[in-house]
Amino acid sequence: MTMMRSLLGAAAAMALSTVAAVADPAVIFDLGGKFDKSFNEAAFNGAERWAEETGGSYREVEIQSEAQREQALRRFAESGSNPIVVTGFAYASALEAVAPDFPDTSFAIVDMVVDQPNVQSIVFNEHEGSYLVGMLAAMASESGTVGFVGGMDIPLISKFACGYAQGVRAVNPDATIIQNMTGTTPSAWNDPVRGQELTRAQISQGADVVFHAAGGTGVGVLQAAADEGILGIGVDSNQNFMHPGSVLTSMLKRVDVAVYNVFSAEGALPSGITVMGLAEEGVGYALDDNNASLVSAEMQTAVDAARLQIIAGDISVHDYMSDESCPVN
Amino acid sequence: MQKMPKWADIVLIPLINLFLAFIISGFVIWSIGKDPFAALNTMIEGAFGSTNGWGYTLYYTTNFIFTGLAVAVAFQARQFNIGGEGQAAIGGLGVALMCLMIDWPHWALALPVAIVGGAVFGAAWAFIPAYLQAKRGSHIVITTIMFNFIAAALLGFLLNGALKAPGMAAESPGFPEGATLPTFHDMLAPLGIEFSRHAPANISFLVALLCAFLVWILIWHTRLGYAIRSYGRSETAAKYAGISPTKIIIVSMLISGGLAGLMAVNVTMGEAERLVLNSVEGAGFIGIAVALMGRSHPVGVVLAALLFGFLYQGGAELSLWEGIPRELVIVIQALVILFTGALDNMVRNPVERMFLKLRKGA
To answer: Can you tell me the ipTM of this complex?
Structure first.
């Protein structure tokens, strides 16, 4: 009898595991689309890397309207996709509604916390990575004035700005930091012309290093920096290649690693909050052939030391989103 | 003498236009290496194959009925209202303010107030361009389109300030429980009909149909409707008959703006249950195509709105299951607009000639 039961149990487990193997993972991009050279594209790259390495296939969709957020989530879950990743904080309310209806499906959301037993919330310590590029900016700056161009004016972007400002001040307590947000609507993520304008305005105020956290708008920021002969700093993906010699570094936010990890979890996705910080290599700064001449050994040593100190807890970088305020500005 | 029978004008020509649009779309799909017939099947199955599909199709249809009627009413007075986008956005503000004003005990009380809120705000947004056209001669096309941008900026300002809910997204707080409109699932369950619980189609669809009926009464069975149509046909004749152009322009634009504003009842109150940025999502512009295709007649508008609802929902299914990128879905939608709107005469002239020839032969 016990043997019978264990046999049946094994058969059932096998049947279950075949189902799990058949289920493809899925990723749902935000309105920006998967080729935004930034956030969504990083997610896409992570999914592609997973597909290449495992030979597996996955479902994906770029939504067109707000009503499709819940629709896409629900339809993928119904069709058996597992796990399902959504990119962006805007999916929170849709996921909040869908996740309880599919208790056997694992979900993951990037950049937002959704408190459900089958949801993994992936958040990044952008302030830590921004702190490091802030240090680099202050060390590379000759004028003592550096700039920041944000995309849409939301707490998440202020988190970048605040970490950056702290890093700048850590190196040069007298530095001037000019901060601008592109706008208050989602179109602020994709306005390179305005990005150029803001950058030129900051340059005219003396800035000689400008960091952007502005998605597609940042293409204009880096362009203006290169045109005017100053240094830009990229964000999310490694953007050093866009203007070799004019991009000091990029603040990496490894959304690709996050998506890759979720896809690789094979259905056994832990729920709760996953923090991707410096220690997890979820954030960092980019060093490659394109910016090797810009970052001196001395700068690199200082930043790497700070990185270890942050991981060890010796330097604490204030997170803007913890209290919606920044100690330096 | 009419060049061709009426049924050819309102049925045959749109069908030929659609057919041509679908053929070209088929070639486009084929050229990226997908099967056009499978794609068409996915669209139809996705839009009409389940109650869930119907729920989304009718949800989009509701939007397009409102904005299509808005353009149609203005067009009867030869006013080209392309500000439906902004009027619907401001209508959303009206609906949201009404819903958030008090803790509504029941939707039946909230709905009429929200309808008034949406219509009044939408109409108010249309009033300024209408006044400028009637009194100052500022061209309505220019002013209404400019007002779309002002509306977007105003909503951005409010949703990042006074109306913003705590958190990251620029959106208003959620509406109270009592302002939740019944969906098709809630309405049909007592009748024993099982309708998908999660589809967003709601009672606003019936409001839209009612509006279509009221517009029909207004335009063809009232004194005001007659005045609007007369003015639309010939301004000088209308003036000679004692019809005030100022009044007609302003009144028709107010009705138009009010109808556009009502769209917000569907998206804001019926679906999102909060005011979000960019809730209109182009429905104001689709309304122009819907009105053109529906020949500015309520029945035509409803049918054309259903077609575009199908294209939206079917298009979503295409990108979900066929891996057809959303840009291509927009191309397909655009082809339908191109053929039914812009290239209408390309089909019309040969068909007219054919009917003339047939008549001569008979």
So the answer is: 0.78
